[in-house]
Amino acid sequence: MNFTLTPEQELFRKSAREFALKELEPIAADLDREHRVALDVLKKLGSLGYLGMTVPEEYGGIGADMLSYILVMEELSRSCASTSTAVTVQNSLCNTLLVEFGSETQKRKYLPELATGKKFGAFALTEPESGSDAAGMKTTAVPKGDSFILNGTKRFITSAGFADIFLVFALTDPSAGNRGVSCFLVERHTPGFTVGKEEDKMGIRGSSTCELFFENCRVPRENLIGELNRGFKVAMVTLDSGRIGVAAQALGIAQAALDEAIQYAKERKAFGKPLAEFQAIQFKLAEMKTKVEAARLLVYKAAWKKDHKLDYIMDASIAKLYASEIASEVADEAVQIFGGYGYIRDYKVERLYRDARITRIYEGTSEIQKLVIARELLKD
Ligand code: CAA
After folding, report:
1. How many angstroms separate the CA atoms of 148 and 144, rounded?
2. Does the CB atom of residue 237 touch ligand 1 within 6 A?
3. In sequence order, what are the beta bridge partners of 210?
4. CA triple 199-253-287, angle to 5 deg
5. I need a surface site. Which of 5, 109, 240, 309 has the fewest CB within 10 A?
6. Within the chain, where are the H helices?
7. How confident is the model at residue 306 (pLDDT cuts 50, 70, 90)?
8. Which residues, other chains included, contact 5 with Cβ-Cβ below 8 Å and sequence gap of 6+?
9. Are residues 317 and 222 in the same domain?
10. Residues 22 and 87 in one domain
11. Domain check: are 43 and 94 in the same one?
12. Does residue 254 sit in the same domain as residue 344?
């Protein structure tokens, strides 16, 4: 593994940083306070290619490598983890799923608009009574003529408030457990499909999270993605890759918390000198930096392995587990360095502390990552 970035990867990082500083940093606090999605900024990200990072050019993407996408995720997340949440769902979950499992017709029909932000996607796996136990879903899809009839409810679906296209997992053979799940593409205005209210979340408040309801929703057979009854595998493979995106998001949040803490420690005085001159604060900063760098190496390594077509399942879970855990720790220490100010909404570290928390939950909790890692370690 090479520890330097290519000029192209450096350019992606630099341009994403510039975009984030200009377009996201000034509005991130307002998005959080107003519980508002920056759809206009997401559209701009789409027009610049950031929503089709790894989509091949023939399907309207920019055909970049995974590491470039991860660098973009990290930089956007430093400024606004809410907006980067939609970026990761679009790139990692929707585009990747369609690139890897969609038919030629499905790719040509849907990817060009997703990759350029003309349309937005959502990934609907979780249900009110099945999160970590993804195969415990209850939503069904029953064949009828040239269609499937979907019934059921999905919960905590990111980007659902504005998505046009939903990749929905449902049971097509309820007696077969995870071997009876299939994946369907459902367009927003399909009769029998409704999107529920926005969840009032602790963090990433400038992202959208809703319930989905399917009541005798007729989906054409041509919208089946991948093979019938093999949808669970589609979800798992997609999540393996998606977890690197969330890990990069956590890394960006942690880096932002460290940046804030360093700046504050230099400016704020106590007992007649800047906080940065106290060894207690220096040690905190040193530990924060060490964690951020360790997370960075794990995240980049997982992306690098994917780019080199090496088995990266365990690496993705290790990166997601570690980066999300340290994002909470680093944000927590940043709040501590800020003292009372860190507990007040006016300061960015307060938002980072809340935003960091979700990265230990979505796209597989820390406990699920440990399970995946242990399974990979123990398999024959
Ligand atoms: N990668 C590839 N394939 C995998 C896999 C992985 N990580 N984990 C399992 N599989 C495959 C197995 O090889 C097996 O394939 P075959 O049928 O070919 O043998 C199949 O999937 C079934 O595997 P298991 O019997 O091991 O499945 P399980 O029911 O025991 O579940 C689990 C395994 C790891 C617990 C899985 O349910 C899981 O990952 N749960 C977490 C779900 C999750 O991450 N949810 C997040 C929701 S999405 C989200 O948050 C998006 C958002 O909006 C931001």
Report:
1. 6
2. yes
3. 157, 198
4. 135
5. 309
6. 7-19, 28-34, 39-47, 66-79, 81-88, 96-101, 104-115, 231-267, 279-307, 313-338, 348-358, 366-378
7. very high
8. 13, 67, 71
9. no
10. yes
11. yes
12. yes
Strands (E) in 172-208, as ranges, are 181-187, 193-198
Q: Are residues 203 and 228 in the same domain?
A: yes
Is the pTM higher than 0.70? The answer reads: yes
With the most atoms of ligand 1 within 8 angstroms of its CB, the residue from 123, 178, 209 to mutate is 178
**Paired tokens of 193:** 């499909």
Is 57 found in the same domain as 129?
no
Cα of 364 from ligand 1 centre, angstroms: 9
Residue 307: alpha-carbon gap to chain centroid: 18
Rg of the chain over all Cα atoms, to the nearest angstrom: 21
Ligand 1 center to residue 242 CA distance, Å?
Answer: 12
| Cα separation, 241 vs 251, whole angstroms | 16
Element (H, E) at 156: strand 147-158
Among 59, 94, 119, the domain-final residue is: 119
Instruction: State whether 132 and 111 are in the same domain.
Output: no
14 with 82, same domain?
Answer: yes
Q: What's the one-letter identity of residue 63?
A: G
Burial 34-44 (b: 16+ CB within 10 A, else e): eeebbeebbee
* Strand partners for 181: 171, 230
Of 101, 119, 137, the last residue of a domain is: 119
* Predicted confidence (pLDDT) per residue in 50-104, tens digit: 999 999 999 999 999 999 999 999 999 999 999 999 999 999 999 999 999 999 9
Q: Which of 236, 313, 357, 369 to mutate to test the pocket of ligand 1 (most atoms within 8 A of CB)?
A: 236
Residue 43 resides in a domain: yes
Name the β-bridge partners of 212. 154, 195
CATH number at residue 104: 1.10.540.10
Pairing of strands 209-220, 273-274: unpaired
What's residue 244's pLDDT?
Answer: 98
Return the bridge partners of 158, or none.
209
CATH number of domain containing 360: 1.20.140.10
Distance CA 298, CA 121 (A): 28
